[in-house]
Design brief:
The complex is a heterodimer.
Chain A: H1 7-13, H2 27-55, E1 58-59, E2 67-68, H3 72-78, H4 81-115, H5 119-126, H6 133-143, H7 150-157, H8 169-197, H9 201-209, H10 214-242, H11 246-250, H12 263-273, H13 277-301
Antiparallel strand pairs in A: 1-2
Helix pairs in contact in A: 2-13, 3-13, 4-8, 4-10, 5-8, 6-8, 8-10, 10-13, 12-13
Chain B: H1 31-61, H2 65-68, H3 83-88, H4 94-99, H5 109-139, H6 146-155, H7 161-174, H8 181-185, H9 193-204, H10 208-216, H11 221-232, H12 234-250, H13 253-258, H14 267-277, H15 285-312
Classes of the chains: A mainly alpha, B mainly alpha.
């Protein structure tokens, strides 16, 4: 899970005055209130994170205790063609998925902004996001079936050849990317829509007075002012996109010929298929670092914290 | 996998729909109208593309497998029947099932439905209540190190699921909790960083006077929390509970790791197994779509009932 916010640090800094309270304030009460959450955090986040890092330095099959092997797993990873294939496949997926999804989401958000505030429209657009990945994947798996799928039936009706969407190595990954564009575009659009609400209407009025048409307004007003919001949306959607698993697992399962073996699936197969927990942990450490790097890079490149106005 | 919903503070200014000054309606009164028509046309196409797969799932679930091939593009169910649901709920014999084009594997979606309900309910109850307690400590109590500890809790958001899933699997295995409900539930039972963050935002906004009045009347912190803070936050707590429930219901990865056996298998995992069991040449499409419908319907209904609340919860919590 991920959260977009810029409010947290600001809110946390607020309220420095602590009038006539004992030095430790409500420390005792706070500790009691924090007991359950701390148990959960330490047991299922903090300790596992440390343990995961430790596993990555060991040879570990769960059946026998971990054996320390230094950086062997990382050396193996550098020379593992399947690892590089998985990273490449994942990167390709992210680019297709995020590229199309972002463009469509901006379009939908702008359309909603200009046409309607209806909660019904927003609800419909949002609906796919709340249906399980597995359900979405299977429905599209049927609709895109080579023989029975409605999409191929329609393709044939208009005189085109039916396509093996999941059987063709060149098509399988774009198909999965498109399915997830369908699932996520409405949700992303609503996030961007929320961002659009924050643009001061007076800027548009000023642009209109200067004779800017709708297209010009979009390029010169909407997009630049939306940039901080867009940057945060992208950090979250890209991070999520890198973790694609469910859709692949229930449709193509990595095939044909590794064309959809994304990094999450590869790690899953290493750990739970081959019981190679040490190596799988090393890969997830690398994935974590890649995600962190990509997020920081994005925030830098897009200067997310600054708006063009101030 | 990742959810990004953040309590949206209501827009500071009402959505500005500035009425056109009566004097100047002429400029572009024709062109925007064409633009509007085109815009609505695009919007309707988008809505149709969004809704069609849901309809197709419904239509196919009520179809007969043998008729599906001949009527692949028929908008109505091909040979209307409830057989697919009977197969999915394990109400047919093996011979009947095979005759209808079923996989013949032992499936019982009543059981998986029950398991999904148990798992999602337990996760929601624990996570929302315990996260509310933590959020209260972070928002309303004053103690040294509060913001630092909060930042540490929040940092867990950056960690990809699989990084902690492997050690968590080992832990659940060591505890002997594989294929049990506690194994499914525990990792998200006590907190998620998102839930704490979400509720903290709301608790911050409750006026201090109310709480102080209660404490002057002699109520303890615990009592104030239960009797004042929680009831006052009924709306955000409901929203969070709904989001948590949906998230738990849809989760695939973790139940796949620790909940394979029949007694605790949830719908998403069952769907994956159903799909892999289905014969290669002629899959049981009607059965598969009936099964996905069973998995999706509770969420769609929840969404229809509480949609407005969910829709309004999506936004930003105070980007300036």
């Amino acid at each position: 899970m991920a959260v977009i916010t810029t409010a947290a640090p600001a809110a946390a800094r607020a309220r420095p005055g602590r009038p006539r309270r004992p030095r430790y304030g409500d420390l005792r009460t706070a500790l009691i209130f924090l007991i359950p959450a701390t148990i959960g955090f330490v047991t299922f986040y903090l300790v596992p994170a440390v343990r995961g890092a430790w596993f990555s330095l060991t040879d570990y099959s769960v059946l026998a205790p971990p054996r320390f092997v230094g950086l062997d797993n990382y050396e193996r990873l550098v020379q593992d063609p399947l690892f590089w294939n998985a990273m490449g496949v994942t990167a390709y997926y992210v680019v297709m998925n995020i590229g199309l999804q972002t463009v469509l989401a901006i379009a939908i958000a702008v359309l909603m902004q200009r046409l309607t505030r209806s909660a019904f429209v927003r609800g419909v657009v949002l609906l796919p996001y709340f249906v399980a990945n597995v359900v979405v994947a299977l429905v599209w798996f049927f609709m895109l079936d080579f023989q029975m799928g409605i999409v191929n039936v329609l393709l044939e009706r208009v005189g085109l050849d039916p396509q093996a969407f999941f059987g063709d190595p060149a098509l399988a990954l774009p198909t999965i990317a498109l399915i997830n564009v369908w699932r996520h575009m409405g949700y992303t659009a609503l996030l961007i829509f929320a961002g659009l609400q924050m643009i001061d209407q007076q800027v548009y009025e000023a642009a209109e007075l200067d004779g800017a048409g709708p297209l010009r307004q979009f390029w010169s007003v909407t997009l630049p002012l939306l940039r901080p919001v867009l940057a945060l949306v992208l950090v979250v959607t890209v991070t999520g996109s890198f973790q694609i698993f469910d859709t692949v697992a229930v449709t193509s399962a990595g095939g044909p010929v590794d064309a959809t073996r994304v990094i999450y699936l590869y790690i899953y197969q290493l750990a739970f298929g081959q019981l190679d927990f040490g190596y799988a942990s090393a890969l997830s450490v690398v994935l974590f670092l890649v995600l962190l790097g990509v997020a920081l890079l994005q925030l830098r490149l897009t200067r997310a914290s600054e708006s063009d106005t101030n | 996998m990742s959810t990004t919903i953040v309590p949206a503070t209501p827009p500071a200014t009402p959505p500005a729909e500035v009425p056109r000054p009566a004097g100047a309606p002429e400029k572009g009164s024709r062109r925007p109208r064409w633009g509007t028509v085109l815009g609505w046309a695009t919007m309707i196409v988008i809505l149709l593309i969004t809704l069609f797969p849901f309809y197709w799932m419904l239509r196919t679930a009520f179809s007969t497998n043998s008729e599906l091939a001949a009527q692949a593009a028929n908008l109505a169910p091909a040979g209307f029947t409830l057989d697919a649901f009977r197969r999915v709920f394990g109400l047919t014999t093996l011979e009947e099932s095979l005759a209808q084009g079923g996989a013949g594997g032992r499936i019982n979606f009543w059981l998986y439905l029950r398991n999904s309900v148990i798992m999602s309910t337990a996760i929601t109850l624990g996570q929302v209540f315990f996260s509310a307690m933590a959020a209260y400590a972070f928002a309303r109590l004053r103690w040294p190190g509060r913001n630092a500890v909060f930042a540490v809790f929040l940092s867990a958001l950056m960690v990809p699921g699989i990084f902690t899933a492997i050690p968590n699997f080992v832990l659940i295995k060591e505890l002997g909790l594989l294929n049990t409900f506690p194994g499914l539930v525990l990792p998200t039972f006590f907190m998620t960083p998102f839930a704490i963050f979400f509720l903290r935002q709301f608790f911050l906004g409750i006026p201090h006077e109310i709480e102080e009045a209660a404490m002057i009347d002699g109520a303890s912190r615990g009592r104030t929390f239960l009797r004042i803070i929680l009831p006052m936050s009924a709306a955000p707590i409901t929203t969070l509970a709904v989001l948590t429930y949906i998230q738990a219901w849809n989760e695939y990865f973790w139940p796949l790791l620790v909940g394979q056996s029949d007694g605790v298998r949830v719908l998403t995992v069952a769907l994956g197994i159903f799909r892999s069991q289905t014969p290669q040449g002629s899959p049981d499409w009607a059965g598969l779509m009936a099964a996905t419908l069973v998995a999706a319907l509770p969420i769609v209904l929840l969404f229809v009932v509480l949609g407005r609340r969910i829709v309004n919860s999506i936004g930003f919590s105070g980007i300036k």
